[in-house]
C-alpha cells in the first residue's frame, strides 16, 4: 500500500507496453499516434533561453517530439534508463562502442558477431588505436582469462549472427561487473520482448530496429538502450558524432513497435514449425535454431530467453553451388536479400569460414539462413519442398 492508502498500479506486461508506451494522445489533440515532426531549426522565445539552451528541444539533430516518443517507448519496453535512436542498426553498434573507448584501449568481441561489426572493429577501431580480440561465443565465465589491464568492453551477440550460438550472458556479466568493464549486447534477434538484457547484467542493449521493431522492411533505424550508469556516455557520443535518425523512419519504427508482440508470436510459431519440419528433411544435416531441443545450447536459451523469433539457419548435406542455386532461384515466396525481421520470408546462403578467427566453422555442406515471415506455413513449406526437389535433381 502507498502512503495514500491506494494500491500501487499493477505493472503492465511487455505486450501492453509496446502498445501504450511513448504515447500522449491528449498532448496531440487526441490523435492516437504522435505526429511526424520534420525540422532542423527550433526557435527560442528569448535571448536568455537561447544562451542557456533552456528548452526541451534546441535543434532538430538533437531530438524532436517524434524521436523522443519512440526513445521513451523503447526504453520502457526494454527496461533501460534511456534510449538513443540512430539511423541504422550498424550505426547503433558503432556509436555504442565509440561511447566507451579511446586510443590505446582493448575490447573483447564475440567471434560470431554480425559481419559489419567485425569490419568496424578491424578497420575503424584499429585505425583509432583500439585493439580487438575475438573470443569463442561459448566461453562463458572463461572470458576472464582474456581480460587485459586496458580492456574496456565485452561485446556480446546472442544468438550469434548466422550460426546461432547462445552465449551465457549472466556468466559474462558477472565477470564484467567484477572487472568494472562495460557489457554491450546486440539483442536484435530476440528483441526487447524475448530477452531482457538488463535483468541479466547487460549495460547497453543494441537493436537494429530496422528488423523486428520496424517490422515491414521499409525503414532503416537503430536503437541503443542503456542502464543509468551507461546512459550519459551514450548520449554524449550520439551528440558528438552527430547521430540523427530520420523523421519518417522514426515514425515507421513507432508504428511497427505497436504490433511487435503480435508479429513476434507468429514469427515464433511459424519459425519453429518450419524448423521442426526441416529437421526431418533428408537434404538437411543440421538445423541451427535455439528453440529446438537439438540445439547444443538449447538449455541456456530456455533458461534466459522468453521466446524465439523467425530467424535461424540450416546446414545442408554436401551439395554443389549449382544445386544450391537451382534450389534458391526457383523459390516463389522466399526472397533472397539481406536484412530480416519484416513480414516477408527470406533466405540467403552463407559461409562463415573466411571471417571466423577465434573459432572454426566445420560444416561439410553449404549453409542457408532463413527468416520465416508471416505467410501461411503450408505455403512456405511447399515452396521449400519444391526447392529441395530442384536441389536433388541438380546434384
Automatic annotation (TrEMBL):
Keywords: Lyase, Pyridoxal phosphate. It is an enzyme of class 4 (lyase). Pfam families: Cys_Met_Meta_PP. Its cofactor is pyridoxal 5'-phosphate. Its EC number is 4.4.1.8. One of its GO terms (molecular function) is cysteine-S-conjugate beta-lyase activity. The modification N6-(pyridoxal phosphate)lysine is found at residue 211. Gene3D superfamilies: Aspartate Aminotransferase, domain 1, Type I PLP-dependent aspartate aminotransferase-like (Major domain). It catalyses: L,L-cystathionine + H2O = L-homocysteine + pyruvate + NH4(+). Residues 1-24 are annotated as: Disordered. GO terms for biological process: L-cysteine catabolic process to pyruvate; transsulfuration. Belongs to the trans-sulfuration enzymes family. NCBIfam families: cysta_beta_ly_B. This is Cystathionine beta-lyase. It comes from Hyphomicrobium album.
